[in-house]
Specification:
The protein has four helices and four strands; from the N terminus they run ααααββββ. The protein is α+β, with helices and mostly antiparallel strands. It has a four-stranded antiparallel beta sheet with strand order 1-2-3-4, with no helix packed on it.
Amino acid sequence: MFKKAMLLALLPSFAIAAQLDYSFTSPSFNGNGYGTYILTIKQLQDQAVANNKAQADALSQQAITAAANTPQAQFVANLQSRIYSQLALNITNTLFGATGQPSCGNNCGGSIDVGGNTMAWSLNNANNTINIRIINDNNPSQFTNMTVPVGTFAF
């Protein structure tokens, strides 16, 4: 045993000691570059939200377009267009006739509901004019008055 102790005493021993330093590599833990780290994360989140919204809007628009292109929707749009065209022709013929003079006689008028508005018209023989008044049905204080001279639409 004594031999072992002597042997250990004679062996040179070197000890090196230093302070152990550990630093986190993630900026969320060490604070270095934390502002840019958070900014980058926020930008990535905002981009993901914007991409998701753009995809949802594109899918919604695609569904609306697909619904409008069905044969039934095209038929309804075509029918509606023809009805409005015929209605406009009838109103024009009633107001101005073939000669540019009203074809309904003296002191005539009428009204029609078109798209949430009421269009009323009347012939004013004293001034030789047609008065047209378009009234917003939701707010009757909003209206447009037009005075059209009779006889200026003849060809």
